[in-house]
């Protein structure tokens, strides 16, 4: 007899991905006492001797999509180097693969994140030497159905009674009989 495939609810998937992202805080350790490696720059090098890089990521959910944002401190020479955008894209891919592994540890189930569109990278300057990068990439969450997809247009749900009430008033409507202001006052 074939096993029935166990599906997760929307709440469980979102909660699992949120918990996986929360487990990547600065200074987090594995079960063995080793620092985690989520694909961030702050994990590279010696934490005592090397200059610390401030970077991190966040996840946001809308419909059946996840938006992964990444922010980091960069120097202008890194920004002007060849392949800067592809390096940031690779870092985002490393983070998403770490999220999938961590999701599996947290929930015991797997999730698929499919890239949707291109990466959006924005670099802003704080001085002549320092800048910071903010990147955003969208992923489609496989466990969430198409019914979760956000509709392009919304339906007019305004009740007919409210619509007629709103059409009666305002600057376009008739003035009440007790309004004694001059007609051109506008107030």
How would you characterize this protein structure?
The chain is α+β, with helices and mostly antiparallel strands. The protein has one domain (10-150). The chain contains 4 helices and 4 strands. The longest helix is centred in the middle third of the chain and has 24 residues, at 84-107.
How does the SSE layout of this entry go?
Elements: H1 10-22, E1 55-62, E2 65-75, H2 76-79, H3 84-107, E3 113-125, E4 130-141, H4 160-168
Antiparallel strand pairs: 1-2, 2-4, 3-4
Helix pairs in contact: 1-3
List the main descriptive attributes of the protein structure presented here.
4 helices; 187 residues; 24% strand; alpha+beta
Apparent shape: elongated
Question: How large is the count of helical segments?
Answer: 4
Helical content class: 25-40%
* Strand proportion: 15-25%
Q: Report Rg.
A: 26 Å
Count the beta strands: 4
Poorly predicted residue ranges = none
Structural class category: alpha+beta
Overall number of structural domains: 1
Largest sheet: 4 strands, antiparallel
Order of strands across the biggest sheet? 1-2-4-3
Distance between the termini: 77 Å
Quaternary assembly: single chain
Report the order of strands and helices: HEEHHEEH
Overall mean pLDDT score? Answer: 78
